[in-house]
Design a protein that fits this description.
single chain, 2 domains, elongated, Arc Repressor Mutant, subunit A, mainly alpha
């Protein structure tokens, strides 16, 4: 238990006074940590820019199309989606055509990026 306690990040010193950030998180000083942080910040910035650029496309989708995007990025295929939503496979295919047209989707990775950015994963 003592070794586990020593490996934990402290929020207070031995005399229960708050420690400053550099004492509490010594790994933040490393160049690798800074590089990872900068990469993450860049990734978030790019995601926000993508979201802003594609907001109108998102707004053009129907509730059903959003639902189908979520199921697609969850790995479901057309027959599985049709069964889950109680619609025909042909209806799913038509929704997918509409989605591809509205979002200008060229490949599955584009659809996944869109779904991830707009949090369209099924709950």
């Amino acid at each position: 238990m003592e070794s586990l306690k020593n490996n934990c990040i402290k929020s207070t010193s031995e005399d229960n006074r708050p420690v400053n950030g550099s004492e509490a998180l010594p790994y933040q000083k490393s160049a690798k940590y800074r590089e990872i942080s900068l990469m993450k910040i860049e990734r978030i910035r790019n995601e926000i820019q993508y979201m802003i650029a594609n907001k109108e496309k998102y707004d053009s989708l129907t509730k059903r199309e959003i639902e189908i995007i979520g199921l697609l990025i969850d790995g479901k295929n057309n027959p599985q989606i049709a069964e889950q939503l109680f619609i025909s496979r042909r209806t799913v295919e038509q929704h997918r055509k509409n989605i591809n047209r509205k979002l200008e989707i060229k490949c599955y990775a584009d659809l996944f990026r869109f779904g991830y950015t707009f949090d369209l994963f099924p709950m």
